[in-house]
Amino acid sequence: MYYLLGVDDTDSPTDGDASSTRPDTASMALTIGKKLESMTLARLLNISCHPLFLHPSIPHTTSNIASCLLLDTDAQKIREIDMTTRLMLRGQCSPTANPGYALAAWNQIEPEIVSWGKTAKIAPVQRMDAIQLAKRCGIYTAGISGSGAGVIGALSAVGLRYDGNDGFIYWMPGLEKLRGICTQTEIDQYIHFESIESEHHKRPALDDRILFSESVKPILKEGRIVITVSPAKRGKEYEWES
User: Fold this and answer.
1) Structure pTM?
2) If you ran DSSP here, which 8-state letter would residue 51 be given?
3) Is residue 109 domain-shared with residue 27, that is, in the same domain?
4) Which of 145, 120, 129 is nearest to 66 (CA)?
């Protein structure tokens, strides 16, 4: 059964050398996902990142991005996943951060949750509203320390990931291998995307050569994980580039 685990540490401002060693929200999400796998609590399918509204009143560093883990697990393991997530957020976040999380089964997501996520991209929203909405929908949520404002981004990430039309994939199995020039036939041996296409919906042939940069970011589009490419300039040793 699929579950969505949204996390947000609110990106507290840097505070000298100590805070510079703290992980960002996405890398923290990956650490949590790998821990859950090592404890055989869940299988980590992917992690998405979702940019939210930027405003001076909202704590963040250079960006305001929440993350969401897509997990494959059983309902009887949810309580232990809940407790493990709480402990890891408490242990990894900066003392000045305001982390929070939200944990929901895929079939628990109501249209209100999606609307909440979309609103959080364009306007300030309130922590208590996030908590009350999650409670109405039966979603686990909690602020871990500080003001607990991270529940805002965490619940937003859950809604946006479910909707499948926002953000990019930070991690999925095999993504770190996607470098250099490859064909789709070669890629399919270690990673799967729903589509590789240009902004005009043109798709490379299976044997077309594609140049992948070191910072490939698959996007979420209509619920699919998509790699966007553009035609290479004439004379290149490849036909497409990401």
Assistant:
1) 0.90
2) E
3) yes
4) 120
Query: 158 and 181: one domain?
Result: no
Average pLDDT of the segment spanning 154-168: 97
- For residues 120 and 203, membership in a common domain is answered with no
- Under 8 Å CB-to-CB from 213, ≥6 apart: which residues? 179, 241, 242
> What is the spatial distance between Cα 179 and Cα 38, in angstroms, rounded to a whole number?
27
**Calculated CA dihedral for residues 154, 85, 70, 147, nearest 10 degrees:** 0
Residue 56's alpha-carbon distances to 12, 96, 117, 162, in angstroms, are 13, 17, 19, 28
What six digits make up the tokens of 175?
A: 């993504």
140 CB-near residues (< 8 Å, 6+ apart): 78, 82, 101, 102, 103, 104, 134
Tell me the one-letter amino acid at 185.
Answer: T
The residue whose two tokens read 């992917």 is 46
DSSP state of 194: S
**Euclidean distance between CA atoms 167 and 160, whole angstroms:** 8
User: Cα separations (Å) of 210 from 139, 193, 235?
Assistant: 41, 14, 14
SS3 category, 235? coil
184-213 pLDDT tens trace:
999 999 999 999 999 888 999 999 999 998
**Residue 171 zone, left/alpha/beta (φ > 0; ψ -120 to 50; rest):** beta
Domain identity same for 95 and 179: no
What element of type H or E holds 132?
A: helix 127-136
**Which range marks the domain in which residue 227 is found?**
173-241
Do 153 and 64 form a contact (C-beta atoms < 8 A)?
yes
CB atoms within 10 A of CB 38: 8
